[in-house]
Amino acid sequence: MAKFFGNLNLVLLVGLIAAIALMFGMHGDLVTGNTIGRWLHLFFGVLWIGLLYYLNFVQVPLMPSIPDELKPAVGKHIAPKVLFYFRWAALFTVVTGLYVAWATGYVHQALMLKEPFQMIGVGMWMAIIMAANVWFIIWPNQKKVLGFVDADADAKAAAAKIAMMASRTNVLLSLPMFYAMVNANHG
């Protein structure tokens, strides 16, 4: 059993098989591209926001207390992997969310903030802004901080500050975004 749980790819594969079995076992003919899209949207959204919260609540606040000799392990091994999943989860969350809105027939009305789709539209726009922050502000600046792009110490410090402010903006936006997404169909 430890060997099974020690293999993340195998655990994910079995989880995927279990999800598919549940989908088709419980709903059969009702499984559509829309239902699969919703499931994928939730999966990628949880991954994205989970990593956003990990970075802001755990990794960034703890970095000053990590001994200098251990910091390269975070910067060279942990942070690059986290940021890889973070940015791709952001993109796939938005893409699957737009797909669901399109498949359900309200993407245009929601993006134009028309009734009765204003609430979900507001949530969609916040998610789009957050994903743009990830790809166009956080990631380019983190590449400087992590040394993937040449930058002197001052440029790295400035990039770290910009990335942190964009990331904290995403934390701020995540709270009203969740409200908009969860309550879009309730009023």
Q: For the residues shown, what is the average pLDDT?
A: 94
Low-confidence stretches are: none
Please provide the ordered H/E string of secondary-structure elements: HHHHHHH
Helix content: over 70%
Number of helices: 7
Structural class: mainly alpha
Q: What is the CA-based Rg, rounded? A: 19 Å
Distance between the terminal alpha carbons, to the nearest Å?
47 Å
Described by the principal axes of the CA atoms, the overall outline is: flat
User: What percentage of the residues does DSSP assign to strands (E)?
Assistant: under 5%
Explain briefly what this protein structure is.
Helix content is 81%, strand content 0%.
How would you characterize this protein structure?
By secondary structure, this protein is mainly α. It folds into two domains: 1-31; 32-183. 81% of the residues lie in helices and 0% in strands. The protein has seven helices and no strands. α4 (71-104) runs antiparallel to α6. It starts with a helix and ends with a helix.
